[in-house]
Amino acid sequence: MDRLLSMEVFVAVVELGSLSAAAAQLDMSPAMAAKHVKGLKNRLGLRLMNRTTRRQSLTEAGQAYFARCKTILADIRDAEQGAEALRSTPRGHLRITSSVSFGSFALAPAIAEYLSIYPDVSVELSLSDMVEDVVASRFDVALRIGEPADSGLVARRIGLYQMIICAAPAYLARYGTPSVPGDLSRHQCLDFSHWSRRTGWRLGTDEGGEMGYPTGRFVSNNGQALRQAALAGFGIVLQPELLLADDVRAGRLVPILQPYWPVARPITLLYAKDRQAPPKLTTFVDFVVTRFGR
């Protein structure tokens, strides 16, 4: 027998004063209502009510149990109302993960705009260039650069991620401008430590191949650090266009080797399949797709 329903019957009997009234309210027969109350008594091993032909009253144990049942049923109603609200209005907490450069330069401003539209939503943004398991790490949304592995997640492409090669004018004036990837072996190349040493810089060619294995004395796991070294005139940098675009426009960095830039990779938004996804997730997904799609 449903224990919560039995508690609900018991509370109704106490508040309405009779089994028949409680049964009518809960749309069941008086016999079934009596069965629920008796089931509680047998489970607890306590008498909950004293009955006479004219009235009924609670025992001491019944009074304590009645109070607890009221609290429990009220908590359940509050939980159900809260769940219903989550289905109808964007609210709650979103955990999002993204690569460092895209997350800090492009996604963070978008999240700020989203939060201004939906004041009942909060966001935790985790930035890492190491690919984490979205489900195991309990993220609601992940932004990935490149083709995602088949993970059973919903994948929506929201744009392209272009890497560019640049150097400061002072560096090029001192060491010359490389014209083909092979020239990079004679230059200081600011390397990203997450890239495999066996692949180095994956540079495209007109034929669509990959080539180039530059080496350098400055290696970092942070694109901003590499950007600063390039601005200081120490070497040549390969980093996302969104990270270097302002410096290029201002002339602080000069694009080089354009025919050999890596092929642009997709930016993909990933989230778990859910037929009843909460509004906080659906609105964020729609917002990001629209924001970056334009």
UniProtKB/TrEMBL annotation:
Pfam families the record matches: HTH_1 (PF00126), LysR_substrate (PF03466)
Domain HTH lysR-type: 1-59
PROSITE patterns: HTH_LYSR
Keyword line: DNA-binding, Transcription, Transcription regulation
Keyword Zinc part of the UniProt annotation: no
Sample GO molecular function, one term: sequence-specific DNA binding
Stored InterPro entries: LysR-type_TF_proteobact-type (IPR058163), LysR_HTH_N (IPR000847), LysR_subst-bd (IPR005119), WH-like_DNA-bd_sf (IPR036388), WH_DNA-bd_sf (IPR036390)
Coiled-coil residues: none
Any one biological process term the GO annotation gives: DNA-templated transcription
Superkingdom per UniProt: Bacteria
Keyword DNA-binding: yes
Similarity annotation: Belongs to the LysR transcriptional regulatory family.
PANTHER family membership: HTH-TYPE TRANSCRIPTIONAL ACTIVATOR TTDR-RELATED (PTHR30537:SF5), HTH-TYPE TRANSCRIPTIONAL REGULATOR (PTHR30537)
Protein name listed in UniProt: HTH-type transcriptional regulator DmlR
Gene that encodes it: dmlR_11
